Hints:
Blueprint (H helix, E strand, L loop, with lengths): L6 E4 L17 H10 L2 E4 L1 H4 L11 E3 L2 H8 L3 E4 L6 E5 L5 H18 L3 E6 L6 E5 L5 E5 L2 H13 L5 E7 L7 H7 L8 H15 L3 E6 L23 H9 L3 E4 L17 E5 L6 H6 L5 E5 L18 E3 L2 H13 L28
Parallel strand pairs: 1-2, 1-12, 2-3, 5-6, 5-9, 9-10, 12-13, 13-14
Antiparallel strand pairs: 4-11, 7-8
Helix pairs in contact: 1-10, 4-8, 5-7
Amino acid sequence: MNHRPYTVILIVPTGIGAAIGGYAGDALPVARAIASVADRLITHPNVLNGAQLYWPLPNALYVEGYGLDKFAAKCWGLRPVHQNRVGLILDQSIEPDLRLRQLQAADAARATLGLNLTDYVITDAPLQVQLRSSASGSSWGTIDNPDSLLRAAEVLINKAEAEAIAVVVRFPDDIDSEALQSYRHGQGVDPLAGAEAIISHLIVRTFQIPCAHSPALSPLPLDPDLSPRSAAEELGYTFLPSVLVGLSRAPRFVVEACNFPSHNDIWADQVDAVVVPATACGSSALLSLSQLPVQIITVRENQTQMQVLPEPLGIKAKQVNSYLEALGVLVAHKAGISPDTLSPNLPSLHCLSTTEISSPPNP
């Protein structure tokens, strides 16, 4: 008997200080484990990007956050591909030496990994990213010249026939900031993540094309007390390799009005389960998925700066303590086994009363 592919979404929202997934690709082990259980794993770049570190997961779909929201809302579908032509945008603010490091990383990805990259574009104005943080502790940011970013993307799409876009933007150096030091030591919030999300959201929303961002920063001084969760970002001059690898096989977006349907297209009603931190249940994607017959699993151990629990939102979820426990729930769910039957304390069935049933519906 043929069964449909078991499809899991792994969500770790960006810029909210998740204990797992809030750092330099430190949720990648979780993604690898879930990908070994699921037939298809859908997740977003900050889960899979580890700066210069990455892991090929043939059954994982690399979906930018805005695109994931549209997918969960059943507005867009996902179309798996064998290869994308990836275009590269470089912020005019990047200094010549640092720009050369990004271009050498791109050439290395072509020569060593065989990726298909187009020629690159430098924005016609500095993008001027401004970093911010909210009272809740989450990070966000603004771009002073978003039109310049969109013009560069349009050139890559129309002239270079790019099918996905990587963006490298010069971010402010703030070596001595308390937020950065906390992040490097495995505490607090990634100070760049919120602004990075705005950059990729803008391109995906405007052009319906896969996109991910890599910040350009000056190298930081060595720190002997560096957290292992932050260490991937200390390995070199650029974070670009994992972005290029992810985009090279990112699924394309299917917008019903623009694309011919394919039997390989994936839609939200094919999702079986979603895994999310227990205190981060307010995302647009999860709110949409909660309206579908999807098994929602919340992980208590992955604490965040948010305090958005599922119960006040009316979301029915199975809470577990850890991702190890979540893996067990996924295995049982995929096998069609109720997790309750794996406990020694299985209660007996109870008879439901018919006296509270209202009058039968009209024929």
